[in-house]
Amino acid sequence: MTAPxxxxxxxxxxxxxxxxxxxxxxxPARYFAIPEDAAQLERLLAWARGEALSVRxxxxxxxxxxADEGVDALVVxxxxxxxxxxxxxxxVSAGAAVMLPALSRAAADRGLGGxxxxxxxxxxxxxxxxxxxxxGDGRAIGDLVESVDALGGRGRMTIPRDQLYFGYRRSSxxxxxxxxxxxxxxxxxxxxxEIEAELRELLAHRQATQPTAGPNAxxxxxxxxxxxxxxxxEAAGCKGLAVGAARVSELHANFFVHDGSAxxxxxxxxxxxxxxxxxxxxxxxxxxxxxxxxxxxxxEVFAEPEPDLPDEPDEPGAANGERxxx
Length: 326
Hints:
It contains six helices and 18 strands. It is α+β, with helices and mostly antiparallel strands. The strands form six sheets. The chain has a five-stranded antiparallel beta sheet, covered by helices on one side. It has a four-stranded mixed beta sheet with strand order 1-2-5-3, with helices on one face. The longest helix has 19 residues, at 264-282. It is globular. The two termini are 24 Å apart.
């Protein structure tokens, strides 16, 4: 028999995760909780260990695809326990659940530059650190990191920058067995009018090149070395390709969209078909950038092991969102 959750912490059962992801797709979590602080978080994790429950961390949900069947796990949202930020001079300490556009705007309001690139990335700090989120000109979150706060088997820890690695859409935090709680970033003073001009330019570019009006998860595939996933998908004739209600965007081929009636199974089938067509056309096997949450074996489209890639620029304006499995 399952032991009751820790006293004073609300733990809900069979919570649909579609409402917590940008794609608005996916089945329920067996358990779902939003701890108020780090102490409640640690109590939740202790309870999960005692019940042999896997734990998944939900941030912004912008780069996440959850199986139609959901997940047999405790899903923890950090939006209360790690949802604040604090500026001290040209540095900011931000919790893992702080959204990148909000932090970018807050820095701009204080005349601090460095986070302008993040204004159009609809993810949270935790996922951005795991995937080293950035944009096409090479700027990425890892360049700003002084230290990362995390929770591991030995409790809370602060990991200094010289013990971290950040590369193209990856970091040493991913798969390290720690839960990212936040980071300390170093910014730099910059004239407010310059910051505002760049923010307007970046947002205008995003509006013009990405399907921001409907549900999407940002870039579906990572860019292969020396090329762009969007270009390869378009060259393979996949713009507008559909499986059921899931469709490759006509505006940006590396964005997949739907009208609200799609299933996750349709989205996965569409990904697999696009991957197959690009392989047939260009001899390149695209690797998913979006995170998969599901029980049992990975869908084949996700099963490709990650190669050791050198740093490569991302597609201009491509969004990178949340990654956070613990």
